[in-house]
């Protein structure tokens, strides 16, 4: 162990993890308020998933179980549109097939089956139309936009129509570089039934920030905002945790499991019956000898990685709330944290 202070990567984003690209597409013109986010790993990545919400919408999650034979994924899709949004994976698969990225199943150049696990949030009708939702083409567009650069936060991608505890949610991301050189990154779509704000009006994620990461905030003096009511079930937090450490499939699954602690620290309540909270984990490391949960000599290293991933996810939730912007919709105004609690920002 070391007392050296962890630092974020250059973008403070999941794209600081080598081999991880992110692309996003969204629409905000009425009746749309939704979008799609694609995490692309061109060289594939070992993957795991842990689903704890009571109302998930997912695709290809069983394949990631450590007892199953899949060796890795080509992309992860996070999207709005509820179960309809699962169609976006088809567009990603088609684009990856054209690039010959996937599990090889034949001798031809494009004889591949891309592996694209997907999770959705419920954001139907938030912009005024139940049928205004992502399609397969949105998945293709998001993949084609994917880069290893900065990631737009707040009202972008799958976070475009997101809400959290009645406030405007969104997409957030963060990264950290540990003292041994390992990089971890998180990307989250914050759309929870629970609140990301504590009873005093402070962001619950604030306490997990790295030095000087978040703006100077104070306990707000504003009265709690009058937030519009919502129908049960219009929720779900979905996320991806990634590292360049070389983990085997079981260790990657464990990283996804521990990352749920990061949700619980920043959102309360979490994992409800009306949320579909799902976290994917990726390992892009290519070392021939992979870290495994059954090797006593590597357990401390793994626990350090897992704990850092959970904290990074909490930080990403904070970034999502701070970047979110108020939106006017036919259903009313969805207030951002900044607009709901302006006195929390003394320097604005």
Order of helices and strands: EEEEHEEEHEEEEEHEHEEH
Low-confidence stretches: none
Please estimate the helix content: 10-25%
Mean pLDDT: 95
- First-to-last CA distance: 39 Å
The tally of helices reads: 5
Structural class: alpha+beta
* Main beta-sheet annotation: 9 strands, mixed
Q: Strand portion, in percent?
A: 15-25%
Radius of gyration: 19 Å
General form:
globular
Count of strand segments = 15
Q: What does this 3D model show about the protein?
A:
By secondary structure, this protein is of the alpha+beta class. Helix content is 19%, strand content 23%. It contains five helices and 15 strands. The chain has helices at 88-98, 136-144, 249-266, 299-323, 337-340; strands spanning 21-27, 34-51, 58-59, 73-79, 103-104, 112-113, 118-120, 163-164, 167-168, 170-177, 183-190, 238-243, 278-283, 327-329, 332-334. The strands form four sheets. Strands 1, 2, 3, 4, 7, 10, 11, 12 and 13 form a nine-stranded mixed β-sheet that branches. The chain has a two-stranded antiparallel ribbon with strand order 5-6. It starts with 20 loop residues before the first strand and ends in an 8-residue tail after the last helix. The mean pLDDT is 95.
